[in-house]
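Protocol step 6 of 9: fold each sequence in the batch and record its structure tokens directly after the sequence line. For illustration, a two-sequence batch is reproduced in full.

Sequence one:
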Amino acid sequence: MPSQNSAAPAIRFEAAGAETPARHGRRLAQVLGCRGCHGADLAGQPWEEDPAFAILYSSNLTRVVSRYDDAALARAIRLGVRPDGSPLWAMPSETFSRLSEPDMAALIAYLRTLRPAGRDYPRMAIGPRGRQAIDRGEIRPAPYHVREGRDRAPVRLDERHDWARYIARATCGECHGLDLSGSPTPDADDPPDLIVAGAYSRAEFRRLLRTGVPTGGRRLALMATVARSRFSRLTDREVDAIYDYLVARARQAH
């Protein structure tokens, strides 16, 4: 897979030759976790319901998308800002900030096929404890995380692994950090540095990404959910490419 530059085709998630952009975008919406936040039908859902902290809903994409042109949608997804310049909250735009133009176009094409359903939700209402958390810097809007993560990415090894590196940042990066180094203050249940993948066989890694069951059969609640709902939609070539990259990354670290 060639590296992403002006002389080569843009890196993108795998798409079948006869697949329409909207069908490709539908799979991306699953792999990238849009349904996990915006609901199975993408019609939005309650996200935080503590009046003292905040009342926050994920947006009803079936209604919101028609009010954005393509450029505004891309900015919302990549940068976490609305057309009026106000920030989105709890939107992981930092992981989507490097989505390639072909993948972004496909995702938008899919979103435009959605039929309006449900209702519009109000913008976030921040309570006194939420305001204090913001003042202390404990929670930040999406554009802040985009800026903080602008230069963070998995280590580049060589051109052979550029495709997997791109996919891993947009998928694994949400939990394991944009550089895949895990939580800066890891507890036992925090996402680890993905150097751990170096201890997996290819078959074990495939099982992990399809089912969320790690080597040794331990119970991983979050990974099990993410694997079944998102990573099980990765193609075999994508899974194998990620594995090859993570193993090479682990070997370089040693």
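Sequence two, same batch, same settings:
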Amino acid sequence: MVFIPISDENPLRSISFQWVTIGLIAINTVVLLLGYPEAWNPIRASFSLIPAELFQVRIFGGAAGFPGQQVQVPEWLTLITYQFLHDGFTHFLGNMLFLWVFGDNVEDAMGHLKFLIFYLLCGIAGGLAHAAFLPGSPMPLIGASGAVSGVIAAYLVLHPRVLVWVLIFRFIPIRIPAALVLGFWVLTQLFMLATASPGDRTAWWAHLGGLVMGALLVLFMRRPGVQLFDRGLQPPARERALTGG
């Protein structure tokens, strides 16, 4: 990862605290800790999204009965439960870091309840996109990447000009516009999707599905009066003084 975001210069305007963002991070943390060590994996298989099982249930009306599942979970429900499972700390930290930095302002633009609905819908869209392009796959899909991709897309639509502190190559701190940070991330996802091998373990289609859903939903789920693309954003005080503003 070239850019690692650590904070943004974007105060909350409509809410006093990002309760849903913190709540989602807390739930993901608890689930991760419950799922560690590997002994929990057989139960985790029941809550992951398995494309072949999802579509077999929908088409034929019967469970596929994939091995390793110890809890009977309705297949439609796995479109939500898979979003709270992660394949280790690195997978978890990457998703939660982006949610921490960018989720609060998307929640601020929508309100608590609509943001929660938005987040889950983006995750569902990511899961469906992955399953649609790999309908016969027996491999379980887990992770918040689809939902977090939706958050990234919404932030990019709302606040492309906001400055974000990032670490370049993991060590060098620099402050750059969100459009550069997140735009580069989006281009990376598209490149990886185009060049992915059949055995790639990363669900790039889930990322894309979440991105598209997030960019669309923010247009309709933002609060009245919330402008897109930072229209009306005041420049920094020094810049206003130099321009006579």
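Proceed to step 7 once all outputs are recorded. Observation for sequence two: Confidence is low (pLDDT under 50) at residues 57-65, 237-245.
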